[in-house]
Structures are given as structure tokens and as C-alpha cells.
Amino acid sequence: MKPRLTAAAGLAVAILATGSLVLLVGGNSKAAVIHHTCSATDRQFLGAAQLNMAALGTLSSDYLQGEAKADDVIMQTDSAIDSLRNTDPSDPSLSKTRAILRAMFVEYGRAIKADKHHHDPGKYVYRAYGLANFAHDVLSQARPALAERGCDVSPLL
After folding, report:
1. How many CA atoms lie within 13 A of 62 on its CB side?
2. Angle at 50 between CA 122 and CA 134, to 5 degrees
3. Residue 29 belongs to what H/E stretch?
4. Can you tell me the distance from the alpha carbon of 125 to that of 128, in angstroms, rounded to the nearest whole number?
5. What's the sign of the alpha-carbon dihedral 13, 15, 18, 21?
6. What are all long-range contacts of 71-76, with beta carbons under 8 Å and residues at least 24 apart?
7. How far apart (Å, rounded) are the C-alpha atoms in residues 23 and 42?
8. How far apart, in whole angstroms, are the C-alpha atoms of residue 94 and residue 87?
9. What is the percent of the chain with per-residue pLDDT over 90, rounded to a whole number?
10. 93, 104, 94: which is closest to 29 by C-alpha?
11. What is the pLDDT of residue 156?
12. Span 87-99, average pLDDT
């Protein structure tokens, strides 16, 4: 398999796995009590995260099919990082998710850069995939409490 296909396929698998895991596994962890919020800044973060995940997912799919260039995907990952940097969720789970997603976008950008220079993107895709799963776990656990307060995280799952 070509490295470009590996990188794009890795992100696609991460996005699909994150979405399907929420259907199979519920947030059943018995962790310390977290006081959730659903502030305007929380909603801003959720909107920005959802938009950036969708944009990168579409662009990655186009890249996989040879319809987008590596530089376009790299530019989107940089834009996603900047977009999330400009958010400041007050909810502790959303704040943690913000940091995880930013790291995931960094790793995916590194994968595309490696692929662009004909290097193996595998280790970066692996890291991005792991970060996506970690973000999924955090959001799955917080989902019921956030939903009670009016924040729906399901589009990110």
C-alpha cells in the first residue's frame, strides 16, 4: 500500500472507529466527580471541533483518492490547530479533549508531511489514531452529564 494511502486510511479508520466505539462501549467509568458545564465557550469549542473534524475527514478522503494535494491537507491541519487554539472551553472534559484533538491534528499533519517527502507516515498515523481513541473515551464519559446541561458531543463521537 502506498504511504499516502496509509496516512489517509489511518485517519479515516480513526474517525470511523471513534464513531463506532461509542455505539459499542458506554462511559461506565467510576471516576472522581467532575463538575461539567455547558457555557458559550464550551459550545464554541464543540462547533469548532466538529467543523474541523468534518473538514479534515473530507479532505483526507479526497487525498486518499488522489483528488487533493498533501499541502491542502497540511494547511487544513494547521487551520484546525489554530481554530482550536482560539477556543477556551470551561468544562474540564472539553478542555482535555481540546488538548487531545490539537495533538491529534499535529500528528496527522506530521503523517502527511512524511508522506509528502516519501517517508513512512505510520508512526504519526498510529499516534493520531491513539489520540483519537483517547478523545473518544473522554467525550464518552462526559456525554451524559454534558447532555443534561445542553451540550451534545455526539457529533464528535
Report:
1. 14
2. 45
3. none
4. 5
5. negative
6. 71/116, 73/109, 73/112, 74/109, 74/112, 74/113, 74/116, 76/52
7. 24
8. 10
9. 76
10. 93
11. 93
12. 97
Shortest CA distance to 146 belongs to which of 116, 156, 73? 156
The residue-averaged pLDDT of 70-76 equals 97
The separation between CA 37 and the C-alpha centre of its own chain, rounded to angstroms, equals: 21
Q: Which three cell numbers stand for residue 63?
A: 487525498
In this prediction, residue 33 carries a pLDDT of 75
Could you report the per-residue pLDDT of 7-50, keeping only the tens digit for each?
A: 565 655 555 445 444 444 444 555 567 889 999 999 999 999 99
Task: Provide the grid cell at 126.
Answer: 498510529
Q: What would the mean pLDDT of 138-157 be, rounded to a whole number?
A: 95
- Written as one letter, the residue type at 59 is L
Distance of alpha carbon 28 from alpha carbon 67, whole angstroms: 41
Residue in the structure block whose three cell numbers are 447532555: 147
Q: What's the grid cell of residue 78?
A: 494547521
Residues 94/85, Cβ–Cβ less than 8 Å: no
Phi-psi region of 36 (alpha: psi -120 to 50; beta: other; left: phi over 0): beta
Cell of 117: 517527502
